[in-house]
Structures
1.
Amino acid sequence: MLTLAHISDTHIGGSEHSVRRTEAVVRHLAELPEPIDAVVATGDIADHGAADEYETVRELLARLPYPTIVCPGNHDSRAEFRKVLLGANDGPGDGGDAPVNQVLHLPEATIALCDSTIPGRPEGYLDDATLTWLDGVLESADRPVFVGMHHQPVPLGIPYVDEIMLREPERLAQVLLRRSRTVAALLIGHAHTAASANFAGLPVRVAAGVSSTLMLPAENTQRMAIDYDQPPGLSFHLFEPDGGWLVTHSRVVAA
């Protein structure tokens, strides 16, 4: 059975508060009594996209004794993300500002993280190059694939975050429907709340926010109500490739 830890929206650099909360989540994962297979982080890793923020992120993630894969979110800078976290000075053809698409191969599954960011914009979009890349990963896969990105492709019932969700999600749906037998689930960040949904006939799992929690309309009348006092959250995705079942458990960590 495959076990993935899923974290998102650490927003390192926004405050010492976010660093402490991320440290608590990293410590929780590092001290698990039994090993897990990998840690997936779905964006907004830094708050301003600055190099020193990514240096802090790199130091924190280095404490994890598991394979770790990270994608950018709308608060991230592709160039600094690539340079500091991935150790690469340039992206293909445009000085480091190309989409940061990555793949991690595990014995029981593959994780393909797409860069859904639009530099300078809060909403998301998957460009042609990214969709072509994803289609190629899915076509060549010899094991189930978890597809991840920052922006959610479906509304989550929170007006603020739904206004800045993935644009033209039908373009992604076309790829997923063509390769649906290969895809295990979609792993998403951005919303700062644990949620589950369906898209293109596939399960969608949204990670809680490490830095804060975005409240539902029923919980607060403000358009964008953010709770910084609720504890940081994470998810564990348990997947059995042979049986094809997926179960997600949500956790909060004392910070």
2.
Amino acid sequence: MKSIFLILVLVTSFTCYAAEESRSLKVSANRIVAIDWTHVETLLALGVTPLGIAQKQDYNAWVKEPKIPNGVLDLGLRTQPNLELLAELAPTQILISPMFSVLTPQLQKITKVTEIGLYKKGNVNWQAMESMTRELAMNIGVEKEAERFILQKRDEILALKQQVPSDFPPVLMVQFMDANHLRVFGDNSLYKTAVNELGIESAWQGTTNQWGFSLVGINELVGIDAQIVVIEPLPIGTEAALEHNQLWQFMSQQSNYPVLRMPAVWSFGALPSATRFARLFVRALSSNLIAKNNGE
């Protein structure tokens, strides 16, 4: 009886080890290079470290999370990657988005090129981000990791949603280009996708481009009753100029809600950036509510 039990234990242990070993070999066999940061952040979130990415320093400045492990090489510009370095790395697959499809003929001379898109007009929402995650995972053999990650993000969003007041007003999400012009985010944007998952609507009903924003003057926002959300960074000198901008001061004072300031979040990302935006939004909202309750 003891012998049978021992055999069962050994078989079970070997099966688990073999499955894990198979997964490790599958991932390592896919020597991945990613040009678009949407793919980079998704790969890292799924536990896959690419051989190299484009504009590594800029990724660290704009995307920030997930963090890039040591040893990942910088391949140069996203629009003009270092082809010699790419050839030396000998990747088994290069991931690109439709925006960089002009590179495909050159990259195909090096290895297999896989195009996976997300930002198409009228396409960006939470379900589209999940679909892109699954498509990417299928191409590199980490489907189980993708499903686990997707469920984790759903749970995190649900927990964040419970921290938002049920009667929270629509939000007007903007990013300044200068003291008089800004991007206002609406349909097809990562930001709107994130707040919608929190049960919040966007106050901007105007048209947007495939990236989910419109470039407008401050005067076009006057009269919109909403929680104003300013997303950093602000161009140099803009903050000081806004203190003397009568339209902006009028809007800020007429709003029933104090302006919400948020740190920069990569607006052209996928589930990792969308969840990060939701997390930082709730954190900023909580700080505002505490300040309001304290009479600040």
3.
Amino acid sequence: MVIQENELLSQGVKDWVSANGYKLFWNSKKDYLVYNDITLTGKTDDDILQALGELFFSENYGLVVKKYEKNRVIVIDEM
């Protein structure tokens, strides 16, 4: 997952989610402008989503990632 500089965090996540066959539900009023490119890597979608959750935690965004495999939905929720 690559989130570009000067892009909203929600948009970068949405681009990756859509490209990987999921739908995004951004269940938060919070969003953040990205000031430098962010690259999250992993062998699986779960690895990348785990890295995204760790990013949210390390930056004190107050957001969590939830994956619903059967529905192919990724939810970004407030803590």
